[in-house]
Every structure is written in C-alpha cells, then in structure tokens.
Amino acid sequence: MQATEALYTYEILTMEQTDLIHKAADCLTRSFVGIDVNGNWIQEPMVGQLNLAYEDFYQFTKDYLDSTVDQGYCAVAKDADNNVVGVLAGDTNAPEIIGEDIFEGSFYDMNVILRVLEDVDKRFMEDYKQRNGKELIDGELLHIFMLGVTAEHDRHEVIQQLGNKLITKASSQGKKVILAEATNNKSIRVMGKYYGMQKYKDIEGNFIVHTYQDNNKLNSIPLNIADGTYIIIKEL
C-alpha cells in the first residue's frame, strides 16, 4: 500500500488560509454530525442524539476556527487534491463558563452540549485552583477542542500525525498540560493511544465526568458508545 506520507500532507493553519479554514470546518462538521467512512458510521454521540443540523454546526465550527486559528493550534491533513481529510483543532484559552443559554432557533439544543462541557470544565478549574492556589489563565495549557477525520485510508496514522504537530508545538512553546473534554468511549481510547492522554482525577481521586444517564436529554445514548464526557489530560 502507498505510504501515508505520499497520501497526506500536514500543516498548521494560519488566518490567511480562508479556503482551508472552510474545508477544515466542513471536515469537522461532517465527522461530528455523521458520515459513513468505508462502511463505518462516524458521529459524535451528543450531536447525533440531539440531531443537530449540518448548517448550524458548520457555522459554530467555522466561528470557533476563525476566533482561534491565529493561536496556531489547528492542524490539518490534506490529500493530493488539497481536500482536508483530518483536523485537530485547539486553543490556549482557559475554559470560559458562560452559565446561560447562548444558542437559539434550530441550534437551541447545542446549549445542552454547552452545559455538559461547562460542567466538567468548571469542576476542573475548581480543582486546578485547589491544587495550585491560583486561577487557570489563558496561555497555560493547550486545550484540544475538536478532532475530526474523514480520510478513508490510514485514519489512525492521520490522527497520530495531527497530534504530533500540536503536541510538539505546545511543548516547544512551554505549555505544561494538554486538556480535552472527551465525549465518548472511542475518543477516550484514541486520545489515550495516540496522544497519551488519560482520564483526569480530581484532588479527591474522582474522575471529572458528566454522566449521560443523569441527563434527560442525553440518557438515550447507549452505554457502549458513551457513558459521559470526561476531562482527559496529558502533562508535557
């Protein structure tokens, strides 16, 4: 089989690459809303459960990339035709707790996901302050927010190469920690295997997790797919 290096190239996006930012947002959106790749259904469980539409989720994703790409932590995999087939998007912002619904109309149920993420983020930041005696501030860590891969071949290699790009850069820039909110069992396995990330335990030794069975909007998600959203972490 042709080597992955010949199939895909990898780069970190800049603000000027507007066409690639659009393609990256499309790749992420399709992998979150749902796409068939070689007979395997790829979908983020909360997005699927809430039946969020492509158009709404694309705009959310594009807005995120537009607001964070200048930080230099959005890596893409491109095929020979310059199509984006993999994206790992992150930022160096401390988690923001808004505490109220901000999405409206057909995208209203995105507020459910926002509350899940804010739940685990808030508990992490409280634990961080208790451990370190200070608030977490912007620039201290790399927050991995979205991973999406639509490549038909060598998907695991794509995932690893994207992670290598961002983790190497984060380490070289003095980041001490990589943080993510893992929303399903597969992402926990993938982040553990390829990025060395593990479920985070708070100062009392408990996982920080929002359990879907306790959420009346998400409790129909099968346990074998996902039991909750966990904070996962890797120290650099």
UniProtKB/TrEMBL annotation:
Classification via InterPro entries: Acyl_CoA_acyltransferase
Name this polypeptide is given: N-acetyltransferase domain-containing protein
